[in-house]
From TrEMBL:
One Pfam family matching this protein: S4
PANTHER family, per database record: PSEUDOURIDINE SYNTHASE, PSEUDOURIDINE SYNTHASE FAMILY PROTEIN-RELATED
Family: Belongs to the pseudouridine synthase RsuA family.
Presence of keyword Transport: no
Name this polypeptide is given: Pseudouridine synthase
RNA-binding S4 domain span: 1-68
Catalytic activity, as annotated: uridine(516) in 16S rRNA = pseudouridine(516) in 16S rRNA
Matches recorded under InterPro entries: PsdUridine_s_RsuA/RluB/E/F_cat, PsdUridine_synth_cat_dom_sf, PsdUridine_synth_RsuA/RluA, PsdUridine_synth_RsuA/RluB/E/F, PsdUridine_synth_RsuA/RluB_CS, RsuA_PseudoU_synthase, S4_RNA-bd, S4_RNA-bd_sf
Keywords: Isomerase, RNA-binding, rRNA processing
Task of the protein: Responsible for synthesis of pseudouridine from uracil-516 in 16S ribosomal RNA.
Keyword Lipoprotein attached: no
PROSITE patterns (UniProt xref): PSI_RSU (PS01149), S4 (PS50889)
């Protein structure tokens, strides 16, 4: 992470104010005065403001607009991971709360708070997720009722939980599910003879993807967004 961003985050100030601290020689990194805000800060750097050591306190929470082609793991032999998009100290300590497939885009939540992410991913909590779906073939109206009753997925013993389907056009829909089986949305549409050609997650619980985030961009969650899964 850039030093000026680190100062902005830890001191709760703007980048411009952080620049003034650097210019006034109030910041030391590893015992040396630093004036360059672009200096990269790593986890083992000792950063001080007027002799006071600075570090992140408390868990971290972010939302990311995941681009296509990125995977939600720390290491992959063939594809870039979402963690390379983060300009944060120790991104390896963060994890994804509810993964998306490589070809699925949209809302990804990242945190280092395991209890918080458990409330999203655990089937017991039945956290709802909303996806925008593009389909290869026209979508019959009766699919709404079929999904509401639950469908039988290949290789699964039980029906899926009831899902809400809102048809937007003959090949577009919104689907809300409360579980996270492997490739679930794609498999649900396959079970009724259709194929998903585009999948974008718009919402997890009450947290909606920020419309101002371009693909690959991210931001910290607000206190209100964080609190939803602390209940």
């Amino acid at each position: 992470m850039r030093l000026d961003k680190f100062l902005s985050t830890t001191l709760g100030i703007t980048r411009k104010e952080a620049g003034k601290l650097l210019k006034n020689k109030q910041i030391e990194v590893n015992g040396e005065i630093v004036k360059n805000g672009s200096l990269k800060v790593t986890d083992d750097c000792d950063v001080e403001f007027n002799g006071r050591s600075l570090s992140f306190s408390g868990p971290r929470y972010f939302m990311l607009n995941k681009p296509q082609g990125f995977v939600c793991s720390h290491v992959d032999d063939y594809n870039p991971t979402v963690f390379v998009l983060l300009d944060e100290v120790s991104p390896e300590k963060l994890h994804v709360a509810g993964r998306l497939d490589g070809d699925t885009t949209g809302l990804v939540l990242l945190t280092d708070d395991g209890q918080w992410s458990h409330r999203i991913t655990s089937p017991r909590h039945e956290c709802e997720k909303v996806y925008y779906v593009e389909l290869a073939d026209p979508l019959p109206e009766e699919t709404v009722q079929t999904f509401a009753e639950g469908v039988q997925l290949r290789g699964e013993k039980e029906l899926t939980r009831p899902a809400k389907l809102e048809i937007l056009s003959e090949r577009e829909a919104l689907i809300t599910i409360s579980e996270g089986k492997y490739h679930q949305v794609k498999r649900m549409f396959a079970s009724v003879g259709n194929k998903v050609v585009g999948l974008h997650r718009e919402q997890v619980g009450n947290i909606e993807l920020d419309e101002e985030l371009e693909p690959g961009e991210y931001r910290p969650l607000t206190d209100e967004e964080i609190a939803y899964f602390l209940k």
